[in-house]
Amino acid sequence: MSRIETREQAFRFLFQYGFRTDPVAEQMEIFKDMLRQENESCEDKDIEVDFVYFTDLVYGVINYRDTIDSKFVPFLKKWKLERLPQADRVILEIAVYEIVNMEDIPTSVSINEAVKLAKKYGTDSSSSYINGVLSSFEKSL
C-alpha cells in the first residue's frame, strides 16, 4: 500500500474514531488485520512499514490534537474550530501533523495530499479552503 493510500486509511480511521467506543489499540489491530487481508501478496515487512506510518499519524493526531489544532486555528478565516466539518478538521490535523513532525515528507506533498482528500471526502468548497488554511500556515513557519 502506498503512503497516499495509508494516509487515506488514517483519515478514515480518525474520522470515525470519535464515533466509536472501543479502545484505539483494538481498532488498530482490526485495521492491521484488514491491511494483511487486503494485501495478501505483499511482504509482511511492507505491511509493517505502512502500519508504522499509519500508527504514527493516528496516534500523533489523537495524542496531540489540541496542539495541532492550535497551530491552524489562527488561519481559519472567520471560522471557529467547532464550525468546521469533521472531515475538514481531520484532514487539516493530518496535514499539520505531517508538516510539523515528519521531516521526510515535503510540506508541499502534505498540502497537496490534504487537498486531494478534501476533494474526495469534503464539501464542494473544502479543497480550496483547506489549501488556503494550509498555505497560510506554511507561510507562518
**Do you know the CATH topology?**
N-utilizing Substance Protein B Homolog, Chain A
* Whole-angstrom Rg: 15 Å
Fourth-level CATH superfamily: NusB-like
What class, by secondary structure content? mainly alpha
Task: Give the name of the CATH architecture.
Answer: Orthogonal Bundle
Mean pLDDT: 90
Total tally of structural domains: 1
Q: What coarse outline follows from CA principal-axis ratios?
A: globular
Unreliable parts: none
Beta-strand content estimate: under 5%
Number of helices: 7
Along the chain, the helix and strand elements come as: HHHHHHH
Major pleated sheet: none
Q: Compute the number of strand runs.
A: 0
Terminal-residue CA separation: 31 Å
Q: At the first level of CATH, what is the class?
A: Mainly Alpha
**In percent, how helical is the residue content?**
over 70%
Structure overview:
The protein has about 140 residues and is mainly α. It has a single domain, classed as N-utilizing Substance Protein B Homolog, Chain A. The chain is about 75% helix and about 0% strand. Helix 5 packs antiparallel against helix 6.
